[in-house]
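Marked as duplicate of an earlier ticket. Keeping the data here for the record.
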Amino acid sequence: MTITELEHTADVLFRVSAPTLPLLYAEALRALMQTIYGGCRGSGDQTCACTVSAGDQVALMQEFLSEVLYLSEVKGLVFCRAEISLAQQEGEHTLNAVLIGEPFDQAVHAGSEVKGISFYGLSIEKVENAYQLDILFDV
């Protein structure tokens, strides 16, 4: 699993890869938290449930990370990791997650404000034996 920051003129662009789709979502969450807070300082002991649905995997990723952004701000948590399960029924993709995090502490969590998760350039592809995500965070 890898997270690579790519060049972008104004915002933050990442390429994330993982061997499975659930792990790709978890790694994308880690990239988002790294951008906003510089990542976790511990393993996290607080949990939060999250469920989102969308018509395809790309829209599901945007919905998931937008919900994570919202929950992080409202609950004052920095999410360290996530346990992800995916389902598909009648053309609808659903993601259920347990987000595990730690309380935000201004003294140790520093990064860039992310205003939103962009659809621009958002893609999920199967490359060799892994899934690859390109995602742009609006800062």
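See parent ticket for discussion. The mean pLDDT is 92.
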